[in-house]
Structure to design on (99 residues):
């Protein structure tokens, strides 16, 4: 991956009955993440067809900035709670714009 902007698509599926709790937990990450120096955008979406499915669309100035984000205490705390909240592991993919 080139040393430049990195796009992240992160998907999370809430366990049945925990959709609202997962929404609140992820929403709590938005403000502190957007305040990080390397964050371009950090946008939470919820599927219109499946309320248990959440997606974060993120852009970072660099892979280093993303790695620093992933080590933030509030993100570590969410990752520790995730097995009790999510029906499957977080699905995180990195993307590089090519057009």
């Amino acid at each position: 991956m080139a040393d430049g902007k990195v796009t992240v698509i992160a998907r999370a599926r809430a366990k049945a009955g925990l959709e609202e709790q997962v929404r609140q937990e992820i929403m709590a990450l938005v403000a502190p993440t957007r305040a990080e120096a390397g964050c371009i955008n950090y946008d939470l979406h919820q599927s219109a067809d499946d309320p248990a499915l959440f997606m974060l669309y993120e852009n970072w100035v660099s892979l280093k900035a993303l790695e620093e984000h992933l080590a933030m205490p509030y993100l570590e705390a969410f990752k520790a709670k995730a097995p009790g909240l999510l029906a499957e592991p977080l699905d995180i993919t990195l993307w590089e714009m090519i057009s």
